[in-house]
């Protein structure tokens, strides 16, 4: 017997077969599903030819399932039920009633921006499960290329050419010193002056570190890293305790009150960068991702203003 997986057996054949089996008549089934009776009979004949067995014993007033038809009916019902479940699940996804989303973010983004954005997202889309992964710039771009994450919030433009960037906000790197530091009163510090200090900065692979090294190279100076820290919270505690001068993105300080430290703008040169969404070129952006990015944009705008 030919396989039911043969391409000549299509979903419509299963629907028509179930209708005839349910109503026990080609005429009644045709009226219910909106087909002409001869067309319905032709479709059932196509299915029977594909399977190589008759499915109905046809009589003048009524048709009955053959043994093969009785064997087939429960399978058809299960297939059609699963297709309906799939349609319902896809409908839930498109209307954001269920689903999941994996997002890679820079550590500096998780302090203020992401908690506020997630709170707003859950209010509107509580059925969507979001997984957040803190990553360096290099790790983030690799994860996007391999498909481990769907969206990244990192530096734009990306170094990886297969990724596309969408700007979210612009910011500068700033220096953070203890409140008692003599430089605290000035509000600014040059790269040359930073070269004479013990610096607290992220480890290699982080965008802050890369941007800092480029600025020192431009100023023809060599930085002295006293400690490498990926946590902004730990870095600020170390600075407040007199452990060195921290270098952080300005957005990492959103919502924080500088009680034990002072923030200095870095000049000559200033260290500027763009933060934005990273996605794969040519990849479809799902509705959940679109909704999430829209909310993040709104929150970022309110924090930066």
Itemize the secondary structure elements and their pairings.
Blueprint: H1 11-23, H2 26-33, H3 37-51, E1 56-58, E2 63-65, H4 67-94, E3 99-105, H5 113-124, E4 128-134, H6 137-146, E5 151-155, E6 163-178, E7 188-190, H7 191-194, E8 198-201, H8 207-218, E9 224-228, H9 232-240, E10 245-249, E11 261-267, E12 272-280, H10 287-304
Parallel strand pairs: 3-4, 3-5, 7-11, 8-9, 8-10
Antiparallel strand pairs: 1-2, 5-12, 6-10, 6-11, 6-12
Architecture overview:
This protein is α/β, with parallel strands linked by helices and 305 residues long. The protein has three domains: 11-94, Arc Repressor Mutant, subunit A, CATH 1.10.10; 99-168 and 274-304, 3-Layer(aba) Sandwich (D-Maltodextrin-Binding Protein, domain 2); 171-273, 3-Layer(aba) Sandwich (D-Maltodextrin-Binding Protein, domain 2), CATH 3.40.190. The protein is built from ten helices and twelve strands. Strands 3, 4, 5, 6, 7, 8, 9, 10, 11 and 12 form a ten-stranded mixed β-sheet that branches. Strand 1 (56-58) and strand 2 (63-65) form a beta hairpin. Helix 1 crosses helix 2 (26-33). The model has no long low-confidence stretch (mean pLDDT 88).
Features:
305 residues; alpha/beta; Arc Repressor Mutant, subunit A; D-Maltodextrin-Binding Protein, domain 2; 3 domains; ten-stranded mixed beta sheet; two-stranded antiparallel ribbon; 10 helices; 12 strands; 42% helix; 24% strand
What is the 3D form?
rod-shaped
What is Rg?
Answer: 32 Å
Query: What's the main sheet like?
Result: 10 strands, mixed
| Poorly predicted tracts of residues | none
Count the beta strands. Answer: 12
Number of helices: 10
Main structural class: alpha/beta
CATH architecture grouping of the largest domain: 3-Layer(aba) Sandwich
Considering DSSP H and I runs of 4 or more, what fraction of the residues is helical?
A: 40-55%
- Residues in β-strands, percent: 15-25%
CATH H-level superfamily title of the largest domain = Periplasmic binding protein-like II
Number of domains: 3
